[in-house]
Amino acid sequence: xxxxxxxxxxxxxxxxxxxxxxxxxxxxxxxxxxxxxxxxxxxxxxxxxxxxxxxxxxxxxxxxxxxxxxxxxxxxxxxxxxxxxxxxxxxxxxxxxxxxxxxxxxxxxxxxxxxxxxxxxxxxxxxxxxxxxxxxxxxxxxxxxxxxxxxxxxxxxxxxxxxxxxxxxxxxxxxxxxxxxxxxxxxxxxxxxxxxxxxxxxxxxxxxxxxxxxxxxxxxxxxxxxxxxxxxxxxxxxxxxxxxxxxxxxxxxxxxxxxxxxxxxxxxxxxxxxxxxxxxxxxxxxxxxxxxxxxxxxxxxxxxxxxxxxxxxxxxxxxxxxxxxxxxxxxxxxxxxxxxxxxxxxxxxxxxxxxxxxxxxxxxxxxxxxxxxxxxxxxxxxxxxxxxxxxxxxxxxxxxxxxxxxxxxxxxxxxxxxxxxxx
Length: 423
Description:
By secondary structure, the chain is an alpha+beta fold.
């Protein structure tokens, strides 16, 4: 018996050591819970075929409690699944513009993340394509048509300069050309952004920094906090009093940065105070919501006074934020300028020599894509020229002045900046 114990004693010692080592690693690792979205930007352009491997990187850090676990530029890889057709309304609008390729988003699945130490971790995600711009709080002053025209010109000039100096200039030119053609190959473009929401927890190995102490400060917290929406909001479906919930994406620290007031993941609760749906004749939706309390894990809620200071929003909705935090959609400066410009072109299309100049005909037939312009320029058909010129003006007037306006829409996981006031 003694001899048997002497033989198994090294094995028992090894098993005990292995258990202690495994528990030590588990204590050092950080676990990102399911439901956390990873903001990913695609690094290259890919033709859409199911099974094609793609590469991207994180454009926003991922925090856990009070420290970063996945920094910006962390590499992430995935697979193209196929195409997701867009809404019927989007397809109808594209057909009216002479674009008969079915508008759709590229469905992808991100399945691996590469850490700085060369470690590749498998992940499980559900990815949603995002096409949003950040809008910030403004004074909300009404500007004259002249100021709007000047702002539109500056915005177009800025976009042109950015395009010429963009590292993916070739992709941008291709994308602009494809947008004018009646059909284009399905493509996943460089710079496309996704929210890859984790559907299973991910354990990040390695030692983690010591947690910062929890602040014992009392009173109403103030400052600017980063958050993401848990409840999607839409001016067409929500109403005054609808609940709003958001989670902090970064910890709220004390002024010296040495203590934690509220960790990442703290829940902010509030309600919708203004909700007006879009109506006919170009009247756009409005929405305002405020946050009334915040609570960390296993902590009692603390009263706050939080209003919207900045948010992601659909680029085409032209969302503006007032000083009070009211988000309102608009048609942008083009609501006035586009019909005026197209009206002038339509008037020139009825000149007696309109069809004698092919370039003149191509410009006057604006509004139905590049293919229509080529047909008009080559055929010199005055009836077709007049038809397309009037069509362009009518379409612009209808969608900008008669049709229902844009709704204010903030999908789930929309990034927000919330201003906490002492009040």
